[in-house]
Structures are given as C-alpha cells and as structure tokens.
Amino acid sequence: MKFYGYFRSSAAFRLRIAMNLKGLDYDFELINLQAGDQSGAAFKKINPQGRVPALDTGSDILVQSLAIIEYLDELHPEPALLPADALGKAKVRGISNIISCDIHPLNNLAVLNYLRDRLGADEAARTEWYQHWVKEGFEGVEAILSESPETGRFCYGDTPGLADICLVPQVFNAQRFDCPLDIYPTISRIFETCMEQPAFADAHPMKQPEAAELA
Amino acid sequence: MKFYGYFRSSAAFRLRIAMNLKGLDYDFELINLQAGDQSGAAFKKINPQGRVPALDTGSDILVQSLAIIEYLDELHPEPALLPADALGKAKVRGISNIISCDIHPLNNLAVLNYLRDRLGADEAARTEWYQHWVKEGFEGVEAILSESPETGRFCYGDTPGLADICLVPQVFNAQRFDCPLDIYPTISRIFETCMEQPAFADAHPMKQPEAAELA
Residue B165 burial (CB < 10 Å; 0-12/13-18/19+)? Predict the structure, then answer.
C-alpha cells in the first residue's frame, strides 16, 4: 500500500503511529504541504479533498486518518487499537474525536493561512487562536482522563490505542505553539509514556526522511 | 437514556437522526447554547468539554456525536448505519469525517463568536469564512460521491447511513448561510432523498420542542 503524507501533518503523524504499532510496511509519497502539492491536479485526482493522509490500498484510495486507521485495525486486528466492548470503543472514540474534530481542524495550516491572509490576523493573534482551541479541547480531555477509572498508562488501559494516536501529534503541535501543557498532568504523563514507545518515537515528524530538507 | 442537545446544533441533529432511524426512545434535556448553558458548572459536570450532544446511558456519559452513533449502532444493529465490510466502513467514515472534522468544527457557534469578538470579523467576513469551509469540504465530498460506484440513493448504497447522517445537518446549515448548493448535484439529490424519510424530517431543528420559543 502507498501512504501519501507530510512530516508535519498531525493527521499523517497519527497514521504513521498506527502503521508502526501494527508493523505494517508501506510505500511513501511526499505531498509537500508548504509547496502546495495538496492542491495540485495530480494529487486532487488521488484525493479530491486535497488533504493528507491518503492511503492507496492497491484497489482503492482511502481518506481521513481516523477512517483509515479503523480500516487497518479491522484488517490487522493485533494489537487492537480499540477496546473490544461497545462502551469502551465509545469512550476511546470520544476522546479521539475531541482532538480530531474540535482541536486539530481549527489549527491546521489551511486555517492559520486563512486567518493571516484573509482576516489580517498577525502572528500573536494566530498563536492566541491556536492556544485557545487547544485549551478548550485539552481541558475536556484532561477532565475525562483524570476522572475515568479506565485511564491507565495510556488513555484507555495499559496498551496504546486510537486515543493515544490522536493525543500525541496534538501535544507535539501544542508544544510548537508554546501552549502551556503542565496544567494537564494526565495528558502530559501519557504523552511521555507514548514517546518511550518506538512506534510513537519513530513516527515523530523530525524522524521522517523529508524533515532534513524541509524543516 | 438521556440526550442532552440543542435544536440548532448540527452534532445533536446527527444523533437525533440516528436515534430515529433505530427507533430508540430517550429523555431530552435542553442545553441552550445561545444562553451559554454548555459552559455552566452543571453541564460541565456532565460533559467537561461543554459540548452537545452528550448521552447518559444510565451508567456512563458518552460524548462526541460520531462516537455515540457508532456505540448505538453496535448495540442496536438494525438498521445498520455502516457497511458490513472494512472497505465500505472506511469509505463511509471517510465521507463522514470530511464533514465532521473539516467542515463542521470550523463553522460552529463558538468559532463564529471568536471571529466576531476577538478578531473583529464582521458579518460579511464571517459568512465568507463559513462558505469557504463548506466549499472546501463539499467539493471533496461531491467528487467522491459522483465518482464512486457505491453511491446509490444515499451516500453509500440505497439505505441511509452514517455519511447521510453527517451530510444532512451540514446541508441544512449551509442553506442557512446561503452557500451555493446547486453546484453539488449529488449532495443535493441525496439531501432531498434523505429529507423525504421521516427519521430525517422529524429530526429537523425546527421540529424540536424548543424551536418555537428559541428560533
């Protein structure tokens, strides 16, 4: 299978972690978001939405990181990225979606560029925007994680799963934008635990082949 | 079970459609987003993120509309809201997430209020913002739906599912913000087909008990 990605995309980072956890091999094609590759005709034929990641399974193109990860989890069930029971799945997907719906999309490159180019927001205003949505979302995630009996070494129990896969790239980007993170002790603890795992550490943006040239 | 919602919330609208499709009964508690109920201490105890919908199952509180809908789909499998095969699920979740991640969160009330109050965006600038993200997302959805052999009367085949549940509230809100929609013939056709179904029509914001007073 072929993975279309970019080292700094949080959504691509999620998919790298998931494929590493499952030990899956893949070909990689760089879609340089800074250069605008995602909006070019060639990539729009692959993913009409013009976003990464996209995954070519050989017969089909799949889009949207969480949809792709759930697909891989069904095809390659070990290690499982979701609990076996419906209630556990709902809790893990709930945390995942606070991040994937209510934090990340507000803070991606396309949005920050819109704020700058069309609303005249200067760097300070853009950073304030970024930090605001991280705070709104992480307050919810921290409260849920700190109160839930299911929280273990990871977001749900003692093995990494979908919620951790969403959490780590968001924390990584929050660090880049100087968001205060020590006010979220559970999130910070789980992030550190994840980064000790090779599947997470190897997926780090700066460890990707294009990082040396593009970072 | 108890459903915490608000008539104009797109995410609550999704959950109403899903519960209607499955014929589920529920108690309802209004969280008045215009009055700020979602940020009050009482509701934050229920959902620390301060968002609707939330679902109290009797033993647990679930958050995030898609996580809740997938939970209900597993507990009450008929009618199924996702295809049985992994590839079909990935395609339906992909369309769903274009809407639930990349359109809706950018255009919800909290974001529009931030643009107005903290970035000084006037009504014209806010409408332009709204229309921009609908266009970015719907171009992708329309291309996928118009090219996919699986598209039928609904987004995937001839029975309504998760992608339709996400599509309908987004079209409804796009209409409110005067987004051009006739340029998306497949989306428009599926929207019309959905609205002929009682499960969708009865979930319409203006048919909710609080609409008469609050609209």
Answer: buried
Partner-chain residue, chosen from A60, A62, A125, that has the shortest CB–CB distance to B119: A125
Query: 3.40.50.1000, 1.10.10.10, 3.30.2170.10, 1.20.1050.10: which CATH number matches A86-200?
Result: 1.20.1050.10
Which residues, at least 6 apart from A192, have a Cβ–Cβ distance to it below 8 Å?
A: none
The three-class DSSP label of residue A45 is: helix
pLDDT at A215: 85
A-chain residue closest to B50, CA distance: A140
Query: B105: cis peptide before it, omega within 30°?
Result: no
Distance of CA A51 to the CA centre of its chain: 13
Report ipTM for this prediction.
0.98
Alpha-helical (H) ranges within chain B are 10-21, 41-46, 65-75, 86-102, 109-119, 123-147, 162-176, 185-195, 198-201, 211-214
Is the distance from CB of A78 to CB of A84 less than 8 angstroms?
A: no
CA-to-CA distance for B117 and B137, rounded, in angstroms? 26
Residue position matching structure tokens 């009482």: B42
CA distance to A90, A182, B76, B94, B195, per residue, from B156 (Å) = 23, 44, 20, 11, 16
Considering only CB atoms, A70 lies closest to which of B90, B125, B128, namely B90
Q: How far is B138 from chain A (nearest CA, A)?
A: 8
CA dist A199 to A16, A19, A160, Å?
8, 8, 10
Rounded-to-integer distance, Cα A61 and Cα A92, Å:
26
Q: What is the pLDDT of residues B83-92, one digit of tens each?
A: 999 999 999 9
Between CA B69 and CA B164 the distance in angstroms is 13
Residue A62 has phi, psi (to 5 degrees) of -110, 145
Q: Do B121 and A119 touch (CB under 8 A)?
A: yes
Q: Tens digit of pLDDT for each residue in A136-181? A: 999 999 999 999 999 999 999 999 999 999 999 999 999 999 999 9
Q: Measure the CA–CA gap between B20 and B152, rounded to whole angstroms.
A: 21
Domain A2-79 - what CATH class?
alpha beta
Q: How far apart are CA A6 and CA A33, in angstroms?
A: 7
CA distance A149 to chain B (A): 12
Q: Rounded to an integer, what distance in angstroms lies between the CA atom of residue B87 and that of residue B93? A: 10
- Kindly report, as residue ranges, where domains of CATH 1.20.1050.10 are found in chain B: 86-200
Show residues of chain B in contact with A87, CB under 8 Å: 57, 60, 71
